[in-house]
Write a structure and sequence with these properties.
single chain, alpha+beta, Creatine Amidinohydrolase, 5-stranded antiparallel sheet, 5 helices, 16 strands, binds magnesium ion
């Protein structure tokens, strides 16, 4: 039996504050991508995000969270999530994932992007990477996230999201000739007055249908996908999650609100209209 967890239902006014937090996160991640170059350290990326969040008058969600020492998580190559920014120097060809959260008036936004670093900055999604499989991994993971978000628009029950994510990863694997592994040890989550709330949002098919989706629910949809098996372990810093087989991994995340008239992506500047429009989903514009 699915135990009925307490899911925070937001008012429209509360969702509008979360939208402000979401836009701060979007700005921070855009600034990180604009700045990223080979030769920079992951601590340099952290400083860029910290400055954007501070200038917006917001606070980082991650700094101090269970003792996490930085504003963003930077996870490079075989690192999946929760990497700690530091002296690591980025090189062209690295797969870089940056996860960022911000708080505005007590409400959170949470989003992550991945990219292959080129000589002059992040490579465009269609550009050839030094290892073409890395670019395909990044695209497949992003597509899986958007498939999960699109499913949320019409889903009755939460498990339809994970089913859509898994189906998208399978489809991409066939198209790319790759054996992708979905990371199952970490999942998406409810979000609102705290960064991590019930319910868990898994990235794979489960028979338990999960909670019924209702207006006022806000969810972080965040698939993590590797070029290997997808099993993980945690490094001795007690934070950094790496793939057990050292295969490279990518991570994409958006915070999404379920509203009376549809969904909106709080951490996307266009509310998700562009990518979801391609999938036949209209979004609510706040
Ligand atoms: Mg996140
Ligand atoms: Mg999250």
């Amino acid at each position: 039996m699915f135990s009925r967890e307490r899911i925070e239902i937001k008012s429209l006014d509360q969702v509008r504050v979360m939208r402000r937090a979401g836009l701060v996160v979007a700005d921070a991640l855009d600034a990180v991508r604009a700045a990223a170059r080979p030769g920079m350290t992951t601590a340099d990326l952290d400083a860029v995000a910290a400055r954007v969040i501070a200038e917006a008058g917001a606070r980082p969600s991650f700094l101090g969270y269970h003792g996490f020492p930085a504003t963003v998580c930077t996870s490079v190559n075989e690192e999946v999530v929760h990497g700690i920014p530091g002296p690591r120097v980025l090189a062209a060809g690295d797969v870089v994932s940056v996860d960022c959260g911000a708080i505005v008036d007590g409400w959170h936004g949470d989003s992550a992007v991945s990219f292959v670093l080129g000589p002059d900055g992040p490579l465009a999604p269609e550009a050839a990477a030094p290892d073409p499989g890395d670019a395909l991994l990044v695209r497949a993971t992003e597509a899986a996230m958007w498939a999960g978000i699109a499913a949320l628009a019409s889903a009755q029950r939460l498990n339809e999201v994970g089913a859509a994510v898994e189906a998208a990863v399978e489809l991409a694997g066939e198209a790319d000739g790759a054996a992708y592994g979905i990371v199952e040890d970490y999942v998406g989550h409810g979000i609102g007055s705290a960064m991590h709330q019930p319910p868990d949002v898994v990235n794979y098919r489960v028979s338990d249908r999960g909670p019924r989706l209702r207006p006022g629910m806000c969810l972080a949809i965040e698939p993590m996908v590797s070029r290997g098996a997808g099993t993980t372990r945690v490094l001795e810093d007690d934070w950094t999650v790496v793939t057990e087989d050292a295969s490279r991994a990518a991570h994409w995340e958006h915070t999404v609100a379920v509203l009376e008239d549809g969904i909106t992506v709080l951490t996307a500047r266009d509310g998700g209209a562009g990518r979801l429009g391609d999938l036949g989903v209209d979004v609510v514009v706040l």
